[in-house]
Amino acid sequence: MTAEASQAGPSEGPATDGERPLRIALLTYKGNPFCGGQGVYVRHLSRELARLGHTVEVIGSQPYPVLDEGHDERLSLTELPSLDLYRHPDPFRTPKSGEYRDWIDALEVGTMWTGGFPEPLTFSLRARRHLRARRGEFDVVHDNQTLGYGLLGDIGAPLITTIHHPITVDRRLELDAAQGVRRRFSVRRWYGFTRMQKRVARRLSSVLTVSATSRQEIVDDLGVRDDRIHVVHIGADTDLFSPDPSVPVVPGRIVTTSSADVPLKGLVFLVEALAKIRTERPDAHLVVVGKRPEEGPVAQAVERYGLQGAVEFVKGITDAELVDLVRSAEVACVPSLYEGFSLPAAEAMATGTPLLATTGGAIPEVAGRDGETCLAVPPGDSEALAAGLSRLLSDPDLRARLGAAGRERVLARFTWARAAEGTVARYREAMAVPDAGEAAPRSATTPPGRSAAPEVADVVSDRESRATC
């Protein structure tokens, strides 16, 4: 379905909640559903919103979202291209002169050249221009953690923003792991966009997040008032991620998901744990859903412990292949130091695969109590991970009990249908508030007549009027 077709409005008849269907613009500056939770969120939430009877237009940049468009005519994708500076196989590329279209492109390249990450800001500026040109076509705009200056002010419809967890948490953990002054400077510069995200978040009147843990982090790290933050749990596609006894379980197989070789994911501790348990279980091996790192702590640990044949990395697999991989494991593991929710935990539990997970961030909120629906260990503790793996691999009755209990927990609490219903309720609340989307709180140190965050709307409008697109 094209963007033009969506202008006809939603289909006739009420939505499943009995109210009129909504026209929703869902923004995502990165939409790859096979690398990171934000793309997964957009794919599944958009599908379920459409199933509830609403018209959803996903507006995204590269890598473009992959949607389940064929299943519902109310769901469409509008591509809002960037310069795609981080694309494979030439990340951090310098565009040719003919690729530049306007001042936003120049800003994107300049920020990359100076070591920063430009996409949240530049996508927000492009999205602002796009939305204002289509004023009146949407009932609500839902931003998926862009938190860019371009979304402040009037964008033509009430704004709801999802913050999965503050990226300041990632910044803090990477700084803690950084060695040397040069590396620490590089990390600080790359995460420079978090200053903007803090300022924008404080101006928002309605924020969605995925867990109570993330809610508190947003209050503490971003300074958002707690009465503006609403928890709407996300979940697993329980039709896809389901048990299948016909899939053979491979003895000793451990499966984990790690979309990036960053300290946050804790993969190095799982590799160390694998080395420990292989002394008693030589068949133990690890399959990582993610890209193989060529250097860094994980690559070094694999080489140091001689695990080249015991650690396999897979990427680019289909949904069906991913599900069968998880089903084939004796243990699914989430070794993260922190998670704002942990989709891999929910998805593994939904298949009935027993879960070993750390207590980092919101993982216990998803995985449940130790010994009831999972085994839980402290984050960053390879000895505890090894003990948990050893216990699960040697006890089939425990695996069966935890696997069954884990699936029941997901079915009761964490499904995308429930997430969509909760999200629509927040849309309707935001639409009922005049000028919803942006609040303008003043701090005690902000002079009268001055905003607590930089005012960019006038600058953006002026540059738009002079830009050639």
TrEMBL record:
Residues annotated as domain Glycosyl transferase family: 253-409
Keywords, in A-Z order: Glycosyltransferase, Transferase
Leader sequence residues: none
Boundaries of every Glycosyltransferase subfamily 4-like N-terminal domain copy: 36-239
UniProt biased composition (Basic and acidic residues): 460-469
Region feature Disordered, mapped onto this chain: 436-469
Superkingdom field: Bacteria
Descriptive protein name: Glycosyltransferase family 4 protein
